[in-house]
Design brief:
This protein is α/β, with parallel strands linked by helices. The chain has helices at 14-24, 58-67, 91-102, 111-114, 120-127, 174-184, 216-222, 234-243, 256-261, 263-274, 302-306, and strands at 12-13, 37-40, 46-47, 49-53, 71-74, 105-108, 131-139, 160-173, 193-195, 201-211, 226-230, 250-253, 285-288. The strands form three sheets. Strands 7-8-10-11-12-9 form a six-stranded mixed sheet. A five-stranded mixed sheet has the order 2-6-5-4-13, with helices on both faces. α2 (58-67) packs parallel to α3 (91-102). The longest helix has 12 residues, at 91-102.
């Protein structure tokens, strides 16, 4: 839903909006490999309309241009890996060219939004009804921090909250909790994948929006009943389930786009607040993109697996 903007003066500059975004999601808290912050745009240009989206795809950029957005805020980076050309013969080159030609600035909040509190995983935990929340783990920013010019210097040990752990109001079965996850998240072609005993009791939950199969040690150490994340690969999952001997922690893969997309509305609301606006107020219009950047469109044969939903889980051990 758009915020009405009957009075667009005085204008905000891109510098103002970037400062507000980076007060919420500091660049120094991003992983050292990440590429966050302002990608395109003139810090002095006025900002009247801001579009939020998960991915800076060509379709999303077209939406920003057609709506007249001055700033596109995305979770995923456009230029995560180095490029030597932005010619329009490549999708990334066409994206950069379209943004510059239209005067649409692009700002990225990725791992700095992941570790923020509240951030991507907090929003996911809230959506699942988790209380008594705490970080799944805390750690520095990789190289220990960044100096005044943004150069890693190892001198400032930023403590970042990675993932969230919380409790349900009452215990439920794993099958029932999977239904809670499905109801809380937007539908996707891949649905919700679950590994564990459907009748197993679930009370404590760990979550991480986006890819999370590199956090199994933290999940085991947390003592939770189930871990909700995305992009779970065959071998890490098989090993994790064998370590659990078929018991806890159970695993739920809820999809990358789905687990992170909830952050967009929250980030939008927090930016509006940081800019000093009451909800539905005056100085800028904001909206969340209507374009789903979930890449999968359909699956075949998934229903056959549901017939075995009640089968005992062996954790990969025969």
């Amino acid at each position: 839903m758009d915020d009405p903007a009957p009075d667009l003066s005085p204008e905000l500059s891109l510098r103002d909006v970037v400062a507000a975004l980076e007060s919420l999601y500091p660049l120094e808290s991003a992983a050292d490999w990440d590429r966050v912050g302002l990608v395109t745009g003139d810090l002095e240009q006025p900002v009247r309309r801001i579009l939020f989206a998960l991915d800076p795809t060509l379709a999303v950029i077209d939406e920003a241009r057609e709506w007249g957005a001055d700033l596109l805020v995305t979770h995923h980076p456009l230029l995560l890996k180095g490029v030597h050309s932005v010619a329009t013969s490549s999708a990334k080159g066409a994206s950069v060219t379209a943004l510059v030609r239209a005067g649409v600035a692009l700002w990225v909040g990725h791992t700095n939004a992941d570790v923020a509190d509240p951030g991507v995983s907090t929003v996911l935990a809230d959506a699942l009804g988790l209380t008594d929340q705490r970080p799944l783990s805390t750690e520095g920013s990789g190289a220990g921090g960044r100096g005044p010019e943004g150069v890693p210097d190892g001198s400032r040990p930023f403590r970042n909250a990675v993932g969230r752990v919380g409790r349900l109001a009452a215990p439920v079965s794993l099958a029932e909790f999977a239904d809670v996850v499905a109801a809380a998240l937007p539908d996707t072609a891949g649905g919700i994948r679950v590994s564990g005993d459907p009748d197993g009791e679930v009370r404590t939950v760990a979550v991480m929006g986006g890819s999370g199969d590199d956090r199994f040690d933290d999940v085991r150490a947390s003592g939770v009943d189930v871990y909700v994340t995305a992009d779970l690969r065959h071998h890490p999952v098989l090993e994790a389930r064998e370590e659990a001997r078929g018991g806890r922690p159970y695993l739920i893969d809820a999809g990358h786009w789905a687990t992170e997309s909830l952050w967009l509305a929250d980030g939008r609301e927090r930016l509006v607040s940081a800019l000093g606006q009451a909800p539905g107020a005056t100085r800028v219009e904001t909206r969340v993109s209507t374009i789903r950047t979930e890449p999968w469109t359909f699956v075949v044969g998934a229903n056959a697996a549901r017939a075995d939903r009640a089968a005992p889980d062996t954790g990969g051990v025969s």
